Amino acid sequence: MSPYRPFCSKKCQLIDLGEWANEEKAIPVKGPQDEANAQMDIEDIEAMLSEQEQDFFKPS
Fold first, then answer.
1. Tell me, what DSSP letter sits at residue 30?
2. What is the distance between the alpha carbons of residues 50 and 47, in angstroms, rounded to a whole number?
3. How much is the pTM?
4. pLDDT digits (tens, 9 = 90+) for 19-32
5. Is the distance from CB of 2 to CB of 10 less than 8 angstroms?
6. CB of 22 closer than 8 Å to CB of 28
7. What are the start-end ranges of the E strands in 1-60?
8. CA gap 35, 24 in Å, rounded
């Protein structure tokens, strides 16, 4: 069994890592709603949290 499993060698492992780092590979988004959630910025998240009745940052 290869010590670089699931890769065949260190070279293949580094090539794959480089492709992920260069964003040549990505995990696909399932749909428009998931894509919208992925594009949320901090202001959107803070606005959503402020609309909640329960304060998530303080112990109950």
1. -
2. 5
3. 0.43
4. 989 888 887 766 66
5. no
6. no
7. none
8. 18
